[in-house]
Amino acid sequence: MKNVKLFIALCIGVIPILYSSNDSILLETTNQVVLPYCLAKEDPTRIFAVDSKTAELSKEGKITVHLNNAIETIKGNIIFTDANLKKALLTHTPIIDTNSDGEISENEAKNVKELFLNRKNIYDLSEIKYFTALTKLECNNNQLTTLDISKNTALDRLSCIQNQLTTLDVSKNTKLRSLNCIQNQLTTLDISKNTALKWLICGYNQLTALDTSKNTKLTHLACNYNQITTLDVSKNMLLKWLVCSYNQLSTLDTSKNTELEFLNCPNNQLTTLDTSKNRALEFLNCQNNELNTLDICKNIVLTRLECDNNQLYSLNMKNGNNVAFTEVSLKNNPSLTCITVDNPTGSYVNKWQKDATTSYTNDCSTP
Description:
Blueprint: E1 4-10, E2 13-20, E3 25-29, E4 34-38, E5 49-50, E6 57-59, E7 73-74, E8 77-78, H1 83-90, H2 106-109, E9 114-116, E10 136-138, E11 157-159, E12 178-180, E13 199-201, E14 220-222, E15 241-243, E16 262-264, E17 283-285, E18 293-295, E19 304-306, E20 314-316, E21 327-329, E22 338-340, E23 359-361
Parallel strand pairs: 9-10, 10-11, 11-12, 12-13, 13-14, 14-15, 15-16, 16-17, 17-19, 18-20, 19-21, 20-22, 22-23
Antiparallel strand pairs: 1-2, 2-3, 3-4, 5-6, 7-8
């Protein structure tokens, strides 16, 4: 029996269909897949009639076929799940739609190195897989609940701030040097494969643990506003910047972080803090902890100290460079009656904030 070529109108265009009266099967052929459509339980004559001599249609019918995302490209053009993503790409700077046909082709996608998709109301980034040469992706402030970047193995920088991500798999992104995923809903984050990572910003999530032992190149770490109970940064010896505020840390050992310049660890449960090895430290905020003693005499380049709301009864600030301090705040330490400083009559101490019952001296050990 002859095969008769029919055409079915779809929302995506006209696609050729082959009909064989021997098996009542419609086969739809695309450049991606062959999809069967079965008319075994249908009467084809109710849809169309074929003249047995001329093989011409004597009447026509209409068939609607729903492909349910089976087709991802047509003639090399990407079919996008999210219209807002397509719109963002078509209006992107620098230009992605290089032939100005109103479509994004696979060839156009694979040449893109950087994408800036912030605040575009995007809920689905599935088609990011076509951007295989991508080195930088920013998709901040969208509606993403998932983000699959497993095909983007050249990725160097990823920023997905303020979405609704509950998981983030970066295990295939071994070239990643900067990751910013703050303000999501992550409960875990595995960065063990990201040994090139230098910047990690993962605050404002729901992390209870964070293992940075494999990230020996890390220089900047911010994991604030999580639920982390322990944080081991002993392997991160290049660390210059550490923000771990608003967690549940009871200990913090920075003795191996000799390059540390910025330490922000307020609102934890720290009872001790030794900064004697952090000779490069310029900024220290340890407010709202449970510290009893603090000695910063070795921190000779420190310019800012915030240590309010602790349980201090001993504080040694005699580092030989008190004049360099631009801000000192030591309020609400009711047991702290004496602070050891370089010069208790120096004009700079008048700018410092302390409790009224606390006095300055150059040696608190002397009655």
